[in-house]
Design a protein that fits this description.
With about 190 residues, this protein is mainly α. It has one domain: Tetracycline Repressor, domain 2 (Orthogonal Bundle), CATH 1.10.357. The protein contains nine helices and no strands. Helix 1 crosses helix 4 and helix 5 runs antiparallel to helix 9.
């Protein structure tokens, strides 16, 4: 019985994440989710104490997922640090995950006014940097340079996904490749 309760809870959390992608945290409302899921509001209250408990569940799922993803994506698995960094750049620049980016932006916006959300974002950002810094350190960069380069790396990853460029896909790909080469340069 515990697993079905967990799975019903996960359905609500997934619906909340999808609604957050569409309308931000203010759009995550019990009534809206119940309609989308084709259930009553009573079904919600069997899974969660209140809306805040759902929002906390959303943050927990999002942060755990992002932290696990970057740990896996940054692991070398026999690859060189330079190739792993290239692969990460390709992963985040070649195919746009519009829903994932919308969720990321909505949670970051929410974090501006909510301490619990801010702590979740801080944990995710720290994990992202913690997993990329060793790649730069393995390339021989000093700790302070590796820290700065990791910060630049994520500024690029997120920034490039937000820019609407008046260029075709080839020009964009060429520009991203040039940026990638600058980001994986092993000179301090």
């Amino acid at each position: 019985m515990g697993s079905s309760k967990g799975s019903k809870r996960d359905v609500w959390i997934e619906a909340g994440l999808a609604e957050m992608a569409r309308h931000g945290v203010d759009g995550v409302r019990v009534e809206v989710l119940a309609v989308r899921l084709g259930v009553t509001k009573g079904g919600f209250y069997r899974q969660f104490k209140d809306r805040r408990a759902l929002l906390d569940g959303i943050l927990e799922k999002w942060s755990a997922g992002r932290i696990a993803a970057i740990a896996q994506q940054a692991s070398l698995h026999g690859d060189t640090p330079r190739n792993r960094l290239r692969a990460l750049i390709r992963l985040y620049s070649e195919r746009m995950n519009t829903e994932g980016m919308a969720i990321e932006m909505a949670i970051r916006q929410w974090a501006r006014t909510d301490d619990v959300a801010a702590r979740a974002v801080t944990r995710v950002d720290a994990a992202r940097l913690k997993n990329v810094v060793p790649l730069y350190r393995s390339m021989g960069l000093p700790a302070d340079v590796a820290d700065a380069r990791s910060f630049q790396f994520y500024c690029f990853i997120f920034g490039q996904s937000l820019l609407f460029l008046d260029r075709g896909p080839r020009k964009r790909a060429k520009m991203i490749a040039a940026c990638a080469e600058a980001l994986i340069d092993d000179r301090p």
